[in-house]
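Chain X:
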Amino acid sequence: MSTGWDRRRELTRADILHAAWTLCRDRGLAGLSMRDLAVEVGLRAPSLYSYFASKSEIYDAMFADGQRALLEMTAARAEPPSGREGLRSTTAAFVSFCVAEPVRYQLLFQRPIPGFVPSETSYGLALEFYRTYTADMERIGVTDQRLLDLWSALVTGLTDQQVSNDPGGDRWISLLDEAVDMFCGHARLLGEPVTTT
């Protein structure tokens, strides 16, 4: 049974997590400091450790938080994708999610923090998203692991370029429809010829 103290503790952890995201947006993931984080939430550094035992534990909570947001975004769509337009719309939604918060994208899909490995519980959320992704791809006829890997590399490659080289712009996002067409043509999906516009 949850007590008032448990509830206050969870609220404080949520405040710490929110502050950690804010600091990382300003300074980058590597710039997170336990001392600065404690100041941000009005705690002394030793008190912060009673909520999160280490900086790695904070990164893990951030990783889980980001994965939950990604799962919520995926679950909120009107229906699973079908056909070329479905692949276009889900790809655009995923890339928009990623470029909206570059720090979150880096934490979820890159390895920017030396030595950090998500906990089994947090990584389980990533696996849940991957299962959703593979189910979506199966609906349009992609079951071969090499094709799944190719599509993943195309999408994250465009996302990386957008985040790194044109933040706030659309230089690489504008290529998504062409990437879908190219991929569908290569994989001979949906019985449609490759089209370019």
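Chain Y:
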Amino acid sequence: MFCIRIAAFSLILSAFMSPALAAEDPAFDFETRNAAGEVVIPAVIPVVYQFVSPGADDASLVLRITTLVANAWFDAIAPYNATAQGVYSDLGRRPQEEHTDANRNVAIMYASYRILNSLLPAQSPVWQNMMLDVGLDPDDNQTSLDNPIGIGNAAGNALVAAREMDGMNQLGNEGGCSFNCQPYANSTGYKPVNTAYELNDPSRWQPAVITSSNGIFRVQQFVTPQYGHTDPYVISDLEQHQVVPPQDSNPDLAAYKQQADEVLEASANLTDAQKMASEFFNDKFESLGFSILFMAQSRLLSLEEFVWLDLATNIAAFDTGIAVWREKARHDAVRPFSAISYLYGDQPVTAWGGPGQGTVSDIPGNQWKGYLNAADHPEYPSATASFCAAHAETMRLAFGTDEMGWTVDIPQGASRVEPGVTPMQDMQLSWDTWTEFETDCGISRFWAGVHFMPAIEVATDLGRSIGERAYEFVINHINGTVD
């Protein structure tokens, strides 16, 4: 790994697992604790759940936040290492005697404060309290490079300047908008050929009508289609990361019906383990985020090593998302729910019948839904499967092994889709290796009815290739061997 050292890291996972703000702690020990894992992450997670993505499943938005925060941490602590160089700032090198976790933690806090106020300005009171709770002054705006406050501010400010106009339309003013602009609005001109109410082309993506069963309904929009045009970290040529076209999306071919029937068969035979794995991997914090914390705790990473690992895995997923989003827009492929409705209409099919209904044999094809709602973007390739492949490859390279050894306890009735019903009894999800983790992650999208198998099958190579580049990118920045 990155020169693994023993460190006091036992509190990180427990702090991260609780989706609540860090407890007020004016006596926070900056020398022995981990501000990134114990303060910043617990402050960010509930904000994302409440104001960005209730299920942490809008991957492009979640990954932008987690990646830029991780980048802020890395750049803030680079001056406190003998060789490391920031990604968006070169703030010099502090003397060896200043290379302490106390200085790193303070710099991390101020860099986090700057980037979070850029990404989520409406939640500025949360970020102020995050600083005050550990005894730091959020109004200290100095950028002197002879102390950790100034270094953190300088690193955060440089990252904000580099990323606010990077193609993601964070400010809403890209794509020619001058008035009433909305952050992250579609700046590409993409429009679906199908409406939520009429399937004009059964090979192409159809927006779904989504509800939380509260009487409010919304029609899906392709979330941040401009993500495919956002500045990447490690991809120099997106054409090198294209996937073969989805041949089975042609409704004139027998394979179109075959892949739809495969989804229905999986739906009819859903197990509690498959349902809970699908929910687990759908939440990018629970799956990708928590796995980083698990590795950091179980492998006894230092603060510095945790930051390095977090940046590598986040860049791997973030850049993979850029490639995936471009391919999704290019192929604009149909989702299972549309194809099954098109093929079967009012005819009954055998499948999962909805929350608490189990398997039924009389559900009309046009009323069938997957165990999870399809995400707000086209089918092909699978984003989640690609993210997990990139994440797993980065982990394998970082630790020099495929070994994982992670077990997650799932209490009876913990399902979000079937609360109180699924699973029928306490159970565990476990992965001995990263290969098992990425395999389960990918196929969970098939179990959940949100993807056909071809969208998953092309995801592994795409994600792994970008994960390898992300690892090398971070290693070069750690070693200071950057062009």
